[in-house]
Amino acid sequence: MDLQAQRRQQHKLRLSWMPWLYFVLKPRHHEWAHAWQREVQDLLRELETVEIAEGCFIAPEARIFAEPGRTVRIGPGCSIAADVFVHGPVELGPNVSLNARVSLDGGVAGIRIGEGTRIASGATLYAFDHGLAPDRPVRGQPVTSKGIVIGQDVWVGANAGITDGVTVGDHAVVGMGAIVTRDVPPWAIVGGAPARLLGDRRQRPRSGITGGWDPPDTEGNP
What we know:
6-stranded parallel beta sheet
């Protein structure tokens, strides 16, 4: 392999681990990168029960499994990085990002993630649970599934865990390493194991950026 080909392979690897770079590629890279992604996504559609909207990036190193009845739906503009594991049923809204080593298993009831949400490296969301009855081994326990719902514009920090049955409200933040076992209100900032309320995003200093989307006030009024 010549040096130019090696550089191309290295660039693909960089995009796989840092997929946000795909969306800001210089024009000279668009043709090969878009052709590469078409190939990756077309093959995935052939192999699994997957629906992929336009403008997505999916690392070839990601592992996405979607049997019939366990569809994975990937909305427009989503990115899925290297070493991500997704097992349907899972639905990603527009512009959702799954960073490296994220694990999502939809169980039976599924995982639904809202528009613009960011799931950081190593986070785990499992929409099923095992029983704990003392009269049988763990491997023989019944499995239940309630589902997980993550709202819009949520940030789930690196290595956080979210358990079955949890709903995380719009605009919330889940801190790095948090273990979320209860519902999280909209705009809440939570952290710890188990996660507890640490603050409210609406009470953080404003960014100073003008002309964009304006959140409601601290009383929740529009």
